[in-house]
Amino acid sequence: MAGEFKRDQNYITTRITADGRDGYPVEPGRYRLVIARACPWANRAAIVRRLLGLEDVLSMGIAGPVHDERSWSFDLDPGGKDPVLGIERLQEAFFKRDPEYPRGITVPAIVDIPTGRVVTNDFAQITLDLETEWTAHHREGAPDLCPERLRDEIDEVAVKVFGVNNGVYKCGFASTQEAYEQAYRELWERLDWFEDRLKSQRYLVGDTITEADVRLFPSLARFDAVYHGHFKCNRQKLIEMPALWAYTRDLFQTPGFGDTIDFGQIKEHYYVVHRVVNPSGIVPLGPDVSGWLTPHGREQLGGRPFGDGTPPGPPPPAERVPDITSRG
């Protein structure tokens, strides 16, 4: 359809595996996960790394929220350089892998520290591999985010989750009224499906947190702050959808989820970078975020967030986000 936003989903699909089949075996300290707090796709990887307790074996670099057409950059770090990789822009790691790399420079990306080359930016596979290939280095009590018995259902639900993850962008970047209206209808069909599903169950699949929840949460966390207005997804706010709002608060208040969210960086990225959508670059002061810590009542639906496992400990000091009371 004319004016439809189409995401380039051609990523570097090299995998880091226990057996090293692609030339990159799992090794503590060898790789660096690069994220941006602003990016929902990168948010997934940050959550999984936290839940599984991989902080000591997989270091994490954090790019700033604003980038130009070249690349995400490390402007939050002293001297504007990642302290481990020694680079100013993530683009440099992609060009070490392929000097003529033709596609977008995206996060999350995992970089091989010894060579400085990006290994992969395949965001969907990254979290799955952290869950299934890095098991020897999971913390004691780490949850099983992708149980074998639930994988088919997780995959099925994940298709609908992607309809939300990508659907908000299809609304926001549509360049014709027809394309926008179709994207809008498809998005709300998906959101209504999740609203209905979550009325009677605490989590998306089974009775514990899984990969499916990790994939949906980042989009919901950004919905009222960005997608509702900036991307014209404005039938309702998240806070007006009882099951989804309670579900998102439940996860936000669960260690490993809300402690990866920086609302300030999220808003700065979308409203400053997307000048086609927001030419002024003005970043809104709202919405009020105090409601994120209100009781959600989801415990009455049963379920155990970590199954037979335990919550992760607090994030490392260098990776802590602003307290919710100071966010906006």
A few lines on this structure:
The protein is mostly helical.
Describe the structure using short key phrases.
4 strands, 10 helices, mainly alpha, 328 residues, Glutaredoxin, Glutathione S-transferase Yfyf (Class Pi), Chain A, domain 2
Kindly, what is the distance between the CA atoms of the first and last residues, rounded to a whole number of angstroms?
A: 37 Å
CATH classification, class level of the largest domain: Mainly Alpha
Helix fraction bin:
25-40%
Biggest sheet layout: 4 strands, mixed
Q: What name is given to the CATH topology of the largest domain? A: Glutathione S-transferase Yfyf (Class Pi), Chain A, domain 2
Run of helices and strands: EHEHEEHHHHHHHH
Q: On the 0-100 scale, what is the average pLDDT?
A: 96
Share of β-strand residues? 5-15%
> Which class of secondary structure composition applies to the elements?
mainly alpha
The shape is globular
Largest sheet strand order: 2-1-3-4
The number of strands is: 4
Output the number of helix runs: 10
Low-confidence stretches: none
Radius of gyration: 19 Å
CATH architectural designation of the largest domain: Up-down Bundle
How many separate domains make up the residues? 2
